[in-house]
Amino acid sequence: MPPELAAPTRPARLLWRDMPSHWRTGLLRWAVAALLIVAAFLHDWAAMARQWWDISTYNHIVLIPPILGWLVWQRRSELAKLAPMCWWPGLIPMAGAAFLWLLGALSGLDLARQAGAVAMLGATVPLLLGPRVATGLCFPLCYMAFLIPVGEELVEVLQTITARITVALTHFSGIPAAVDGVFIDTPAGLFEVAEACSGVKFLIAMVAFGTLTANLCFLAWSRRAAMVLACLLVPILANGVRAWGTIYAAQIVGVEKAAGIDHIVYGWVFFALVLALVLAGAWRFFDRPPGEPMIDAAALARSPVLARLERARISPAAALASLGVLLVAAMSWAHHGATLSAPLPRHIALPEVPGWTRADYTPEIWWEPRAEGADHRLLGRYADWQGGTVDVFVALYARQGEGREAGGFGQGALTPGTQWSWQSSGPAFPQGRSERLLGNGKVERLAVTWYRTGKVLTGSNSRLKLAVIGDNLLLRARPTTMLILSSQDRPTARAADAIARFLAASGPTAAWIDRVTKP
């Protein structure tokens, strides 16, 4: 018997003392850089951790860090055959990640800040361990994207899709139903496809699971893509079926019992059942042999492309120093941009509008937009001789940033936790964002929002963010204004008509905003 077969087997390089000295040095170097990045951007990492723990949509992310550790552990034996090195082109993704964080810091967009912090941590691998190791860790590095709490932006779209699927199934099952945005009226009562019913947390958890399964269980890229696509489509369709099941059950047992059953089933049973069905459907197509290494170190070592890339070496001291310079530059720029503040008038007032008079603000259901951090706020009502009323809300900001974002979540026309719910998109108004709201399931309100900064007039939060980012990058201080025109629908007066008449009387929107907020 060959002596190598007779020798007792031992896990390769599992312990620190078993590692080659170059790997011990490389890992220590990487650990120092990783701790430096986490410490420098601790605010962003702490904010992400709070979202993982406190927001049900992101509770599944608490499993991602141990999954990442396990993915690296799977590759440990093959990685040990490679030689880590410092690689100066790794500064390019590091600089890109730092710039992404800077854009988020300058615009107050937490998503960009958090994505940049995660990307910087991932970019330490090619910089400090080299292109071969980074290639071997390609999937875990990409899977780090699931650490970022993203998905809430899809809520309104998913609400609308779920409502359409639900009403189609309701009609198919013979139940009469009328849909108005995300509200479905049936003989048993009025149902709302609320934010919690949009299925967004189910969707993003399924996509994270599907991506992991695609890597672990499949080799063919076509099968991997099919698995991820299934985990994207199935939860959307399944959520529509769940919502229909609630409506169908309500026709038999009543709304309250059906809602209670829905919360229990959806929270504890439905997700597991759909997950099991997707796995059962994919099982027969698994093509990764048991025990197959997740990476091939020999192929990575032979790669001529990686050999050419490895020529761009850099000393460890230069790599760490360059990393430090990038971090200091990004944080200094962000700090300087955050201190910019535009001059504002001491007082602002709503101007006269031809054909319209100021009226007491006495809404049937209290409506007041949120504008946290605004330096000035105005809320008033105008009425015209045709019986129309338009509520005007103006918020003026000396600067945009964390805690004072005109387009931030929960800011603007729809304030979370109030009697108002988002119903659907409203009729188009030039350069504005139009939304229909429903109060207490009976009062309909139309709200149209504009943002004004510099020469930009837009209803798009993204367009506003880009304008603010551009100003802050150039260290240029400009005020930002949020204008919301709103009106209730009444049997004798349509809200859209009242707002259109008001806009025609007040003149160009940009000039009207500038007149209200001029110093």
Automatic annotation (TrEMBL):
<feature type="transmembrane region" description="Helical">
    <location>
        <begin position="226"/>
        <end position="245"/>
    </location>
</feature>
<dbReference type="InterPro" id="IPR013426">
    <property type="entry name" value="EpsH-like"/>
</dbReference>
<protein>
    <recommendedName>
        <fullName>Methanolan biosynthesis EpsI domain-containing protein</fullName>
    </recommendedName>
</protein>
<feature type="transmembrane region" description="Helical">
    <location>
        <begin position="85"/>
        <end position="109"/>
    </location>
</feature>
<keyword id="KW-1133">Transmembrane helix</keyword>
<dbReference type="InterPro" id="IPR014263">
    <property type="entry name" value="Methanolan_biosynth_EpsI"/>
</dbReference>
<keyword id="KW-1003">Cell membrane</keyword>
<dbReference type="InterPro" id="IPR026392">
    <property type="entry name" value="Exo/Archaeosortase_dom"/>
</dbReference>
<feature type="transmembrane region" description="Helical">
    <location>
        <begin position="199"/>
        <end position="219"/>
    </location>
</feature>
<feature type="transmembrane region" description="Helical">
    <location>
        <begin position="265"/>
        <end position="286"/>
    </location>
</feature>
<dbReference type="GO" id="GO:0006508">
    <property type="term" value="P:proteolysis"/>
</dbReference>
<keyword id="KW-0812">Transmembrane</keyword>
<feature type="domain" description="Methanolan biosynthesis EpsI">
    <location>
        <begin position="323"/>
        <end position="509"/>
    </location>
</feature>
<feature type="transmembrane region" description="Helical">
    <location>
        <begin position="161"/>
        <end position="179"/>
    </location>
</feature>
<feature type="transmembrane region" description="Helical">
    <location>
        <begin position="317"/>
        <end position="335"/>
    </location>
</feature>
<dbReference type="InterPro" id="IPR017540">
    <property type="entry name" value="Exosortase-1"/>
</dbReference>
<keyword id="KW-0645">Protease</keyword>
<feature type="transmembrane region" description="Helical">
    <location>
        <begin position="55"/>
        <end position="73"/>
    </location>
</feature>
<keyword id="KW-0472">Membrane</keyword>
<dbReference type="InterPro" id="IPR019127">
    <property type="entry name" value="Exosortase"/>
</dbReference>
<dbReference type="GO" id="GO:0005886">
    <property type="term" value="C:plasma membrane"/>
</dbReference>
<dbReference type="Pfam" id="PF09721">
    <property type="entry name" value="Exosortase_EpsH"/>
</dbReference>
<feature type="transmembrane region" description="Helical">
    <location>
        <begin position="27"/>
        <end position="43"/>
    </location>
</feature>
<keyword id="KW-0378">Hydrolase</keyword>
<feature type="transmembrane region" description="Helical">
    <location>
        <begin position="129"/>
        <end position="149"/>
    </location>
</feature>
<dbReference type="GO" id="GO:0008233">
    <property type="term" value="F:peptidase activity"/>
</dbReference>
<dbReference type="Pfam" id="PF11984">
    <property type="entry name" value="DUF3485"/>
</dbReference>
